[in-house]
Each structure stands twice: as structure tokens, then as C-alpha cells.
Design goal:
The protein is 47% helix and 11% strand. The protein is of the alpha/beta class. The protein is globular, with a radius of gyration of 24 Å.
Amino acid sequence: MEKKETVDPAVVDMLEVARSQGISTPFDRGRAVKPCPIGQEGNCCRQCFMGPCRFVGKVEVGVCGATRETIQARNLARMIAGGAASHSDHGRNMAFTLLAVAEGKAPGFEIKDERKLKRVAGFMGIETKERTNNEIALDVAKTALGEWGKQTGELIYLKRAPAKRQAIWRKLGIAPRGIDREIVECMHRTHMGTDQDAENILNHALCTSLVDGWGGSMLATDISDILFGTPVPVAATSNFGALKQDEVNVVVHGHEPTLAEMLVIESTNPEVIAYAQSKGAKGVNLVGMCCSGNEILARRGVPIVGNFMQQELAIASGAVEAMVVDYQCIMQGIVEAASKLHTRVITTSRKAKITGATHIEFEDEKGPEIARLILRTAIDQFPNRKDVHIPDYLDRLIVGFSHEYIAYMQGGVYRESFRPFNDAVMQGRIRGAAGVVGCNNAHSVHDEAHINLVKEFIKNDVLVVTTGCNAVACAKHGLLTPEVMRYAGPGLSEICETLGIPPILHLGSCVDNSRILTILSQCATEGGLGEDISDLPVVGVAPEWMSEKALSIGAYFVASGVYTIFGVGSPVEGCQPTVEMISKGWEEKVGGKLEFETDWRKMLEKGLAHIDLKRKLLKIEEYNPTKYAKSSNYIPGDAYSWETLQTGAYSRGGAK
């Protein structure tokens, strides 16, 4: 029996089309390229050229004498450092963009959220009274950039965590000093012949992860909100059906929102539309993929076509004139796929070129001009279309649930609060919460674990927050609309109906996992559910992880006190002492632990058991799924229906 490849019918459709055209996809390559069993379990050391040393058979030490535990710890720490560097460099780019805007050097960009600007300035101790937005933004940008080069002290944003959590970090000596400093030190420690104590290496791995979650990623999210607006609920669509037969389709793929935002603006420029019409198209249809897609989806309602595993398949439709990419999670295979059709792959970052792609480098100072050039390049390809196959799958969704908006929904503009959520948990109406996030992996069934876990969590009265590729999976499977309430447990659906939110909340891109940290901190400091994040009945899950960034995210959630479960497989499976260090060992130190589990059903079982244990330790009312009767006449309210949001009849203050 042939192994199932995906649970997404649109992907099944497009796989047939791609294969008929001779286009290779990660699904095909995943069959052909099998993971090295030694490296997959972390039993290989490549830190010098006396090796690589493979820990197989009776081999228990490398040529230098390094033990299996040391090698495993080094490998994991280096992956975490790589992920932290990626997210943090993204944050640095956003800080430079804010600086350019404040100095009047970035035409087309502006400060969209004055309130968020002043809130961030408050975190940084920057004066805001009787100052212009640009004056405040200049200081915010410079202060933010200082977080990368800081050599002593602590990251400013650590103080946003509960006081008890901050004390734990300081006691363990893992409170980060500066973003770049900790990443560099992690690479130094893991160089051959440096740190050779596995526990010490892993302690610094936690420290390194914190510069991501409470540093680069949190700054990236905040600055993106300042520049492009803090998300509020908006209606949109997802899946391949978002491609248009009669328009120029431009797929925006990657992670940096700056380019994506400018493309959104310029795609409606009358000159650009007129040029598209001169080539036989009605206009330009911008769609997103992966995290760039999540950024413009959450703020602009731009449709999202798919997640990580679908990038070549979008090209295979024959309807994509250009795939515009920046950095991270972009498969080199898209150039080969594009070569068989009329699609242009356009790279835009000096950090991320691809052999065979067209390179048009994006600069903040020339944003509108470069965006128009990119769009014109795409439009020029429209007359070269041949056979087009757009699967008839289009799903509705509602996104835009920033942590500010979730707090607003529970208390209004002047009384933003997480009190209603905490009360609902204490009463047993909501069992707890789960952050279900992360990538797709070619060695798992595409979207299967994502979708099944989310459905089962809400069925068991667990509120779900989601980001990244899991969020896109939920979108494509119709799980981001109020109508999904029918699948939720009775207590959860009652609270969601009262607050006017769905039981699965799309919080944005991968860097926006920092929003989850903020929500957890606010829940902990609200009262009633302990004093620290580690007291909360919550769990983090990455069912189909594949990247170093995922490990960095998982580690900073663990360091913040969250039990975190990863699917697919473990990079430290080959050494039980290391497995124990990152699970029981980390739990004793920071209150969170990292575990790997290949079966999503067991992931669910472990997650629910952990939530129930935390409820018991808090001595709050025992969760009883039969206590609250499910509403039998639920109809999504007019002020929060997909139709209302689609027409734009919604604002932060409620229905217009």
C-alpha cells in the first residue's frame, strides 16, 4: 500500500499535475533522500576535520576524546544558535527599517500604530511626552539595535516576563546579555576543544534561545506592528484557489514583511494595473506563502496559497508569473520547477541568492521603485503562460489575533485584561491552552499531525493559538472561522461565544511566537493561575518540525517554563543522558522540558495529561467535560462573522 503523502486534497491534485510535468517536489525528494540514521540521532560530530566522528557500535568517544553526551549537546546547541541567529537577524532588519523611517529615508513606509510605538518606548524607558512619532521612533530603533551589540547587563525585554521567571534566569546565569554576544559565545563554546561539559553547553543553549524569543523575535514583532499596524480580525481566503486565471499572480514567500508590505501597496498602483492590462491581464493578484504570507495575511487580508511543502506545487499550477522570495524556508528546488514553466523566481535579499534566479535587491530607501520593478518583471511573464491548472479549493478564514487584540476582546480599550480567560480556566470551562506551531516535514504526512492535534485539543476544551505553517494548515482546512465552534468542547465554545473569538487563534508568522510569550506572561501576572509561566496549564507543540528555528523556538519556550513536545523525530535520540538533560534536567532548572514524540496521538495524550497536572497543582476546580452543556443554537454573531469582516465593517472598537 502506497504511503499517504498529505491530508490536503488540493495538494493531492497538484502533485499529479507536477509529476505529469516532470517537476520535482519535496514530496518526491523526501522519498528519494532518506535521513542518515547516524546523523538523525545526533551521533555524528563534524566540528573538526579529524572526523566526522560517527558514534556507532562500540565507539563511545571521538578522536579528540569527546563523549557522546558532549557531541549531542554541541549539535543541539549549534542548531539552536542557528535558529536564534535567523530570527534575530530578521529583527535587526526590522530595526534598521524603523530607523530609516524615523530619519525620513524610507519612502512609502510610515508609522502605522502610534499606540504600539509608545508602548514599546515605555518598555525601553524612552520618553514620549511632547515628542513627535519620528523622534520617538528614532530612539526606539537605536535602542533596539543596541540589543544586538550589548556586551553586559541584560536584554531589555526580559523584564516583560513574570518577576519569578526573571529570577530563575538570573539564578541559573542564563539571562542573556546581548543578542549577538550569546549566539557568538554558543558557537565558540561548541568549537572543538572548548566547552566539554554537556550540561554546561545545554545551559548556554537555553540562554541562546532566549535572545530569540525575548530578543530578536519579540523586537521583530513589535517593530512590524509599529510600521505596518498591529493585527486586528480580518477575513481572507487560503489555498490554491486564491490564484486567479485572468490576473498576474505573484507569490510572496519568505519571512521579512518589509518587501511584502511594499508589494501589497504597489500592486494596487494604477500605473502597475495599467501595465498588467497592457499585457492582457485584468490586474495583479498578490498571494502569500509561509511566513511572509502570514504577515500580509494577518494585517492586510491578502490570501495565502500554502505552507512550506507547497512552494513548487504553486509554480506547477502554471498560473504563477513570479515567486518573490527573501530568506528562510525557501527551497532551491523552486528554480528548477520554474524553469519548466514561465515563472520567474526573484530573489531580493543580499543574504539569500539562488543560482538561476533573477536577483532584484530590495532596499528600504527605494522601496516603491523596487517593488514596481519586481511587479513589472512578473507582469512581463503573463503573455508566456501555457497550460494553467488551478485546483478548485478555496477556504475562508479569519486572522489578526495579536496579543493586544486578545486582551482588548476581554476588557475593552481601557480595561485590557486576561481576567476572563483566567477565570474560565479556574472554573474548568477552559481546560487549558496549547500553542500548536511549526513547520512541515517531508518525512511526515503533510498537515496530518497539525490538523488532528488542533481538532482534538479544541474538542477537549483546550484553546489553541497557532503561528507559521500550522496556522496555514488550519487555514486550508477551514479551521480559522467561527463556524469551527461546532467542533469545540462545551466549556470552550461557551467562552469563545461570549468573547466573540474562535477556539483557534491565528497569531501570525514564526517570529510572532513571541506574542505567545507575552500572552503567557500576562496570564501569569493576572493572578489566579500561579505566579509564573511554568504554573500555567499550557503546552507547546511542534508536530512537523524541520528547521533550526523550530528548535530555537522550542528551547525558548522551555526556558520560559513551558512543556514543549516536538514530533517527527529527535536530534538527540542516540544518547539517553542527553535526552534526560533536556527533559527532566531542564524541568528541574527552568520548569519546562523538551520531549520528542513521533505519534501525534501520544503527543495529545501527553499534552492533556500535563495540562491536568498543572490544574491539580494549582488546586483549581477539576476539569469536568460534562459540567457545561454545549450551546445548541450557536450562530456566529454579525459583528464577528466572516461576511462582516470581509466587507471591512469591523474596527478595533467593534462593529462600525
